[in-house]
Amino acid sequence: MESAMVKASGQVERAYFVVHRLHVENAALRQEMEAAKLHVEESDSSYQEFPSFDQINLPIFVSFLAEYVIFNRNVVTSQAQRNQEENAKEELLAQASSFRNERE
Question: What superkingdom does the record give (predicted)?
Fold first, then answer.
């Protein structure tokens, strides 16, 4: 019976050490989890502070679009002026031809 008590006592002691080791591991895991949560919170707050892609690029796109509209207006205006100049030139050539025909 005494050997059974010694054996049981040894098993209890080993179980105590296993429980103690598990408590230590559990505490370490809890600390790691808290550190990970803190890291996530810090990352999230720094992400929130960084302006979004739209906030950065939308003003650039709007500026580009305004310049494009102005450029197109200038192109259309230039084409219209060229057409007017061509029409005036043709009209003057027709008048000159008509004056020549009248002289002859």
Answer: Eukaryota
